[in-house]
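Fold this sequence, please.
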Amino acid sequence: MSNRQYKSQASSSRAALGGGGFGGFGSASSRGSVLSYLTPPPDLKAVSDPNIVVAFKGLSKKDATTKSKALEDLRAFVQSPPESQQEIDGAILDTWVRQCNFNSSLAILTYSQVQFYPKLAIDNSRRVRELAHQVQQHITTADKKRMQKLMPDIVATWLAGLSDRDRAVSKAARDGLTAFLNTDDKVLICWKVFQPQILDYARGALDETPQSLCDDRSMSPDEMQETYLRVVGVSVSLVESLLTQMNKSDLLKHLEKYELYFNNSPAKLWALVSCEDAFVRRLVARLLVICLKEQRGFVEANLELISKAFIAEALSSSQASSAFQLIQTLEPLTKTYPEVWTSSYKTKKSAFSKLQKFIAKGSQGGPATYWQSLQSLLASLPAGVLPTDINALLDFLSAIRDGINSREEPRGNAELAWTSYFHIADHLAKDLPDGTLQAKLFQQSVFPIFEHYMHPSAESLKWSLGQNSPALAKAFVICASTRDATLRTSLSHEFDRLAGEFIIRLRTSLPMQSKDYETSQASIVTEGHRWFSFVNKVFTLVPEVEISKILEQNSSKIITASFAAITIRNGKAYSAAAVVDTALRLTPPLFRIAENMDSLMTFFERDFNGLLDSPSMEYLVSILHNFVYIAEQRSEFAKYWQSAVCNVLLLPEDEEERKIRTITAFIASHEVKDIAAFNDKLQAFLHSMFVKALHGDQQAWPVLETAVTFHAIASAQEILLVALILSGLDIMNAYVDFALNALELLARKHKDVLQAHTTRVSLLTKLLALSEVKDNTMVSSKAMALRTFVEPYAEDLEKIDIVRSRVVELVRNELETVSPQSLL
């Protein structure tokens, strides 16, 4: 095709395209854009190397693989030029980067060609874009002097590569730029000096359309749209970077070009916040934020367009992966120009309804801080946007819950989301005219969440917070901190009801004869943990008595009812004991209340010992162990503990199993080691259990393990235990593996008892002998491993060597003096 025919066809194509579509085909296309596919490729006649001609021709092909291969060939040539070639051929530079000149008076191009680099840098193929920036880097490295003169032609394309969404591509552009401009200051100067060229490129890119950029004969609509969105994204990114980096004086020098960019097609620019590409949507949102900081005039001149784009359209469109940025943009926009929600908003459907539907979708893949930003946005909305009708506000809060509970909402967002929800509810309630309506708002939008958390059910699942008791605690503090008497009364009644219903369930839990006994008890245990975990969080947030008084009163009722249930049902309803144990463990401040402490002391004095032979035993012992942390005098705890232990030790032989299980529970606390050591009857019992454990009694082993772990053994008993273990470390002992296990337990949990010199020598002797046993690999390997626990306790290496020599000598003597009797 001749040059004249090509121009004629291009001209008629432009005419056909000129009318419309999203963001209509603009002036850049009509003047022969550097990015338009209608612009013919460079003339290759001046390129002398035939191989390079072939490579350049490959760059004009449609196929990405062909273009990638051509770029690789070109990169190889630039990296390793022929011996005879002193520098890159000037024709190659012109073909790659020479920019065509536009004569504004004649409205024609001085040259009919445009360089390859800008088109390749926006190609749909990631590999093509990456290679294009790499070739640019190597050409620059090969001939920096001439490349400096050509910088105005390529700088925009090069800088645009920095914001490519693909990391490999942006890295290739950054590596090339860094190699050429090796300091941050030089890069900043580059942005400053070439502002006009960058703005021209950005404006030309914004003027493009899918049809001007792509040939629909060889590309699908999706591919064309992908290219288009990449190009407009580059445009927005370049301008956003300029506004971010330039100071006001630098911006004012080229204000006309900035005005051309923002005012030439403002509807097209801001409408991109609703396009199908999340990357571009986020860029446009950031651009508006920086304009609000640096150039408000560009915003103020187009408030109606911006209101339409960011509120009427963006809130109605999918904002997956960009909802957070949209909300972050609307907040400063609203604070600076609140009229975007009112007088500048010209859409028939209300802004509030748009916002409500948007919120119902959740964060749309955003971070947890999305909900905090939403809370801030709602607080900054001008009067009249949010309704004051109670039903409308309840529907709005329902939409927020739908967003929080949506399947797509990341579970990690839940705590911040619910915390923001409660703050939003509080903010909306304050705009209601009276306390009755405020109380109604909380009763219908917040109180059901308390109920579901305390006692979940399938019917109330929509009110679920999951395990986010901290968020619920904040909700309580918000409600309890109100100055409105009606709301405080309503909150008090709600928790009276919740506590009352819990007490009824606690009292009526199923008896042991029921097949669902365990299920019934477990549900009460769980509910008690939920209640007092919640109270604990509230106490942590606000230690003030006035705010937590409602919880103190109702929790005291639950504690009192639990003590009654324990005694009335003879400990068979172990869930009641579990509730007291949880209360004592999670909320000890409740037992500073005289009523609760009196109940606890009375229980220890009157009922405790008699209930140890019940399903509640483990929880009762735990209550006693937790009592030590609130007892005014440790002697009180010691008195009740010694009394209970002595009572258990009196059990007859036919109740040995119960005795072992109960004593094991009593000594399972580091707080009892001192008082346990002074109980001679307990120590005697422990010794008998040690003997049984080392002779293979599986029932006695937990006593040994617990006593060693919690150091409940008196010094004299420790010596006896070590002696028992030493005597058991004999291959002829049928229970030698139990002795080895006991030694390992001591070495790990109570190693101090093994530090005596004579003990170490004896142990090393025994272990060395056992490690030489060949017909029992389990014993020998265990003995070998235990030697590493014992040996480090020798004072120094010299003593270790002495010990080892002594062991070898002893073994040798035994072997030399062997007799028939010694083998028996």
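The CA atoms of residues 56 and 70 lie 7 Å apart. The radius of gyration is 41 Å.
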